[in-house]
Amino acid sequence: MDLIKKYQITKSTWTHKGFHGVLPTFFPVGESGVAMKSFFGDACKITLFFVTNHYVDWFWNDNDLDRLRNKFFARVKKDPKYFEKLKKDWVRKQKNFDKIISQVHKVNFSTLSNTELANLYDSFYEKYIQEFSHFMALGDGISMRADSYLVPEFKKVLGKDFNEVFPKLISTSYKSFVEAEESARKKMYKYLKQDKKIPTKLLEDHSKKFFFVQNNYAKAGYLTPIDFEKIIRADWNKQKNLPQVEVKDGGWQNWAKRYMFSKWQKTLLSIVNDFFAIQDRRKKYVLISNYYQFKFLQEAFRRSKISFEALRYSIYPEYRGILAGEISEKSLLSRKKRCAVIHTQQGFQVLVGQDAERIFKYLNKQQTSSDTVSGLIASPGRITGRVKIILKLHDMINMDKGDILIASMTRPEMTPAIKLAAAVVTDEGGVTCHAAIVSRELGIPCIIGTKTATKVFKDGDLVEVDAERGVVRLLKKAK
Q: Fewer beta carbons within 10 Å, N or C terminal of the chain?
């Protein structure tokens, strides 16, 4: 069967995201896009992602993102309190998820039977999807697709001032969990300044609140008080050589008065600002959840004859079969070279071999012969530097001060590398994305949504980032 035709993949353009990740933790992301229907009345018709050696290429259908965003906006126009109602319902789902997290945290997995363990994972996963699906596709429809609605809306009123003013309109005063954790850590520097031991209670409280901050879709652990003490001491030794991030107030209200924004334009900016906070809180729950999903996986490894590496290519619905010995290690490892997971309202399908390769190649047909790429200006400025491509966390070791960081998109765990960068360029990302927010805080140029920057440029290329015009130009190829 021609799967490209079956899933009507040719009927839309696609928004791409790239992550360092594995199947068990990323599977809920795809499922959450189609799970919105239970509370929103509509959902993504399809989401799909590919995993290749612990790297995820994820594709949103642009028709879905635009339809859901437009439906959401229509409801907000009809009922100004609709958004607040959705947020209250989300808080309720967060509380339900908090309860199951607390329950899972206290349980000694080794004392449970296979059935009890699987039932506990079912309860955990159900509450996670309920929380995760809330705002999932809406958030990306609002953030990732800004060029299709937000840019045209404000180009009309800003005119020649657009490139200068627009990045300031979409700045946020919200403090992310990454910034909150870093701020709390810095407060403990005072003990090191006085050559004193950091109080144990402070470290314990910090660990309980932020144990997840170094997690991602590929690895997840629990940072202990001892871990944080080591991190704080290491930070203290090098912090004088790094720029310090200072959060700038969003302040779009002042620009609204100057340019006489309409009531709806003010509502749009308010929603965009709110969605940054929503996406940040949602990401926090993802990183927490990933720790517990790996914990379930580690218990399956202990009970089964399957290697942990092979289990990193399993998915949640296979968990009972793994515990029962019904799934082979060979079948899981066959996904390692490349596998595709397609989610629709009718269910999901995992593909390997030629089927996965054909769809992957079709979706990745990009024109990369040009020496220039363009995108949306997230933070203005103009600078020249050498390219460093960062796709996985271990790529950050190659980052030097003054390099141009180019990534599919950045994540909170990439912040140390961004602090060294002279500019940031991404293939994807929306107006409330991590790269946009952090680059504005650091005051460095940033261009997002270029689609092909990681494919056009190579490590060591000399480029000019012109974030006054939204263009990145190759000046000299790396030797």
A: C
Total domains in the chain come to 3
Residues 279, 283: Cα–Cα separation, whole Å: 6
Residue 293 in contact with residue 283, Cβ under 8 Å?
Answer: no
Is there a domain that residue 147 lies in?
Answer: no
Q: Give the DSSP letter string of 127-150.
A: HHHHHHHTTHHHHHHHHTTHHHHH
Q: Is residue 268 part of a domain?
A: no
Pair 225, 78 in one domain: no
Task: Compute the distance between CA of residue 423 and CA of residue 447 in angstroms, rounded to an integer.
Answer: 8
Averaged pLDDT score across all residues of the chain: 89
Is the domain of 356 the same as that of 397? no
Q: How far apart are CA 401 and CA 476, in angstroms?
A: 19
Give dist(CA 451, CA 374) in Å, integer: 8
CATH number at residue 413: 3.50.30.10
Range of the domain at 202: 177-241
Please tell me the predicted confidence (pLDDT) of residue 221.
Answer: 94
Please check whether residues 396 and 314 belong to one and the same domain. no
Q: What is the pLDDT of residues 20-64, one digit of tens each?
A: 899 999 999 999 999 999 899 999 999 999 999 888 999 989 999
Residue 21 to residues 82, 150, 177, 433, Cα–Cα distance (Å):
35, 30, 21, 18
Q: How far apart are CA 246 and CA 269, in angstroms?
A: 22
Helix (H) or strand (E) holding 309: helix 308-311
Tokens at residue 362, please? 């079709």
pTM score, two decimals? 0.87
